[in-house]
Amino acid sequence: MEEEKSKDNAKNDLQSITEQQACFDKNWILQLNKQEDIQDFICLICKQVTNNPMEIDCSRHKNMDESLIVGENCLNQFLSQNPNSCPVEPHENCSYSQSRLAKRYVNELDVICPRQFEQEQEQQLQMSTQQGHEEGETPGIVTCDFKGKVKQVNDHLEHSCCLQMAKCWFESFGCNHTCLKSAIYDHLTSNMKLHFDLVIKSLDTLQQIIRQYKEEISKLNLENETLKVQLQLRGKKDEEISHLKQQLDQYQKDNLQLNSAQKTTFVEMEKLKKDIESKDSEIQKIKQEIQLKQKQIIQQQNFEQINENKEEQKQN
Ligand SMILES: [Zn+2]
Ligand SMILES: [Zn+2]
Ligand SMILES: [Zn+2]
Ligand SMILES: [Zn+2]
């Protein structure tokens, strides 16, 4: 477990040097350099050796004797936290520029492999906690004997360091093993069964997932069919509704026509009633006339009879 931890640290270390551009650990640089070699290149902010040195050249610090140098990363962090200030003393409009000379000087400093440095520090820490531990290198621990210039470190860490870490090739199948790049083949050959089982397991999981998807698809298909049928039914109902609406319209029209027909019939009936009434009175009149005529006729007949009788009497 201890070993795993130290390897994780080595990974972080690689990131901090190549990506974060933080200043360099003074103790690491001092492995192959003297204090007086680096004292003019110490970062004002973090007190380590400057990475990408920037020179503070505000006019108000002109009389200061010491070199005013900060690492670019430290300066950016400082200015983002203290806008309109200066790392030397608080004032506005801090003036600074890249110090190419300092950068070249720092780049040319001799150093050992930073991973090796970190490993040695951890070993020393372990030794100090385990008093009486036998001297010398612990057997089985790989050491990197790189010695070069600061500017060569990144290339070394990425391409030729034997302390470079590697992840197991079967990481995506669930093996979280990390080890030295040089030891990865040992891990692969001695864990073939484990890796094979991991692959089989993930295949099983995949098949299960596929089965679940298939089930979901058939469920969705079924739902789709039901929806289609419902849609068709709705279409039919819509048709029926529009048919019923048409019928209702027709009924309403018919009703209107009937109403007006009824009105005309009523008017006609009234007319007929009046006609009948007038005819009735005419009939009454005619009746009266007939009666009158009949009376006259009867009177006439009576009169004639009387006359006849009179003549008969005369003749007799
Ligand atoms: Zn710094
Ligand atoms: Zn200043
Ligand atoms: Zn190395
Ligand atoms: Zn593995």
Automatic annotation (TrEMBL):
Residues 203-296 form a coiled coil. Keywords: Coiled coil. This is TRAF-type domain-containing protein. It comes from Reticulomyxa filosa.
